[in-house]
Amino acid sequence: SFDNRTSYTHLRYLAHAFQVTGDQRFRDGAIRGLEFVLSAESPSGGWPHSFPRTGAYYRHITFMDDVTIGVLSVLREAAQGTEPFAFLSPSLRDRCSQAVASGTSLLLQLQVDIDGRRTIWAGQYDEKTLAPCAARTFEPPALAGAESVNVIQYLMEIPSPTPQIIAAVESAVAWYKEHPVRGVRIEKINAPAERFTEHTSQFELIQVDDPNAPLLWARFYDLKTEKPLLCDRDGRIVDRLEKLSRERRTGYRWFGDFAQDLLDRDYQTWKSGVAR
Question: What does pTM read for this prediction?
Answer without folding.
Answer: 0.95
